[in-house]
Amino acid sequence: MNILIRSGEDLLSIPQAAELIGVTRITAWQWAKDGKMPTVTLGRQTLVLRPTAEEIKKQRESAPVNAKNLRLELKRAALQKELEQIEKQIRDKEQKSTRKPKRAKANVVPPMT
Asked: What residues contact residue 104 under an 8 Å CB cut-off, 6+ apart?
């Protein structure tokens, strides 16, 4: 395959690609080794085309949530619900404390005649 490289900005090292994609360098190297991330070898350097790395990033952002992220999202939702309940309890207590107290009926004692 012949690829026209316009500038050095079109090529990324594996660590640069990992940073762009949002994964660790170890993961990026593993993807390159497994063929999940296409690479170009120039001399002794293994490089990734920027458009390839950007496409992988886009795919990861639109991919369904994995189990770890799902657990975190569920935990976040539960904490959010708990926070809302606590805030409601605080509002209710504040409203009760700002209400005017009911006037007690005065015990009127009729004058003695």
From this structure: none
